[in-house]
Design brief:
Layout: E1 2-4, E2 7-14, E3 23-24, E4 31-32, E5 38-43, E6 52-54, H1 56-61
Antiparallel strand pairs: 1-2, 2-5, 3-4, 5-6
């Protein structure tokens, strides 16, 4: 669990060898390709159905981004 200004989050690293499907990163709206290490994240107050796959850097910098 990670505590951030926008709440508490469950953050799980996904090694490249375990990344077998493509996903779309909500931080940059770019595709996460199979084989790319990343993180799976969801709020602690919700279930795993709310989880999202993020590029690790996008997750770490998400609070620095200006709203689009």
């Amino acid at each position: 669990m990670e505590d951030w200004p926008d709440g508490d989050w469950i953050v799980r690293p996904v090694p490249g060898a375990a990344a077998t499907k493509p996903y779309r990163c909500p931080g940059c709206d770019q595709e996460l390709y199979p084989g790319v290490a990343h993180v799976v994240v969801w709020p602690t107050h919700s279930g795993a159905t709310a989880r999202r796959h993020w590029h690790t850097v996008c997750w770490q910098r998400r609070l620095q981004r200006r709203p689009g």
